[in-house]
Design brief:
about 300 residues; mainly alpha; MetI-like fold; 2 domains; about 70% helix
Length: about 300
């Protein structure tokens, strides 16, 4: 065999013909995408309706058929609605008096308790954990009246103490989530740190917390959103308008607009403020989406 013959490429085998997609597979794929698109539209349309309603005027709100794209768009509704009441004060109350403190306190307390339930051996640990877990099953309607009487007797009405102080004792749902995540971390890491003389608090701070960023992010995001959207709690304990968070501020806007004789503007104003309030939540979710999904998927690694 000559050099030229050896240099010739071997004849490639005949390419396999592409497998034809059967009619049933095509129908299944089409049906799947139709269902997904329908569900996506059903989730997106309420946000679209809220936004378009915010830029309508009174003549475009209650028309039949409904106006899906208002022309002209009244962009000034956002400024007029926000300045109609003291929403700047409501925003500061929501962030600095309620959401941030309750998120930080819940994160710290739930992390410490979850570590104690997962990595520290002490008598009765499992029993206490199950009791803690069982408190999730108690409806809040059962405890709201006794708690209100208790907080009233100690003079905490018209303060944020009833909303923030309970976060210092952890939340059973987040304790369970963090415990499941901590139990998925190899025990050898903690044993090696104990041999080196590290305390339990040092192990938690130096080993578990850096490895638990996804789970901690989920706890922080959930708790912040719960406080951001909370309406019942502030409604029960706060009676002064200067203390209102955004949830009560929106309700106050509805009352004020209806009380001024311009009830037709109530709906666009409410939708404008609601759009402003919900926009940071959507942006926060998209920015933390990867960490959020990772934390959710890893909290059930080990039971």
């Amino acid at each position: 065999m000559t050099t030229i013959d050896r240099a010739k490429p071997l004849a490639s085998p005949r390419a396999r013909p592409r497998r034809k997609v059967s009619g049933m597979q095509a129908l299944t794929t089409t049906l799947k995408y139709v269902i997904l698109i329908t569900l996506a539209v059903s989730w997106i349309f309420p946000f679209y309706w809220m936004f378009t309603s915010a830029i309508k005027d009174d003549s475009q709100v209650y028309t039949i058929p409904p106006v899906l794209l208002p022309i002209p768009a009244h962009w000034n509704n956002f400024i007029d609605a926000w300045t109609h009441n003291n929403f700047n004060q409501y925003l500061l109350n929501s962030i600095f008096r309620y959401c941030l403190p309750v998120t930080i306190f819940t994160l710290i307390s739930s992390t410490i308790v979850a570590y104690g339930f997962s990595r520290v051996n002490w008598p009765g640990r499992e029993i206490v954990f199950y009791i803690c877990l069982a408190t999730i099953m108690i409806p809040w309607q059962v405890t709201v009246v006794p708690l209100f009487i208790t907080f009233k007797n100690i003079g905490w009405i018209n303060t944020y103490y009833p909303l923030v102080v309970p976060a210092l004792f952890g939340h059973p749902f987040f304790i369970f989530m963090l415990r499941q995540f901590f139990m998925g971390i190899p025990e050898d890491l903690a044993d090696a740190a104990r041999i080196d003389g590290a305390s339990e608090l040092g192990i938690l701070m130096r080993i578990f917390l850096p490895l638990s960023v996804p789970a901690l992010s989920v706890v922080a995001l959930f708790r912040f959103l719960w406080a951001w959207n909370d309406y019942i709690g502030p409604l029960i304990y706060l009676n002064k308008e200067s203390l209102y968070p955004l949830a009560l501020g929106i309700d106050r806007l509805h009352q004020n607009v209806n009380g001024t004789g311009t009830a037709s503007l109530a709906y666009p104003y409410l939708m404008a403020v609601s759009t402003i309030v919900v926009l940071p939540v959507i942006i926060l979710f998209f920015l933390a989406q990867r960490t959020f999904i990772e934390g959710i998927s890893m909290t059930g690694v080990k039971g």
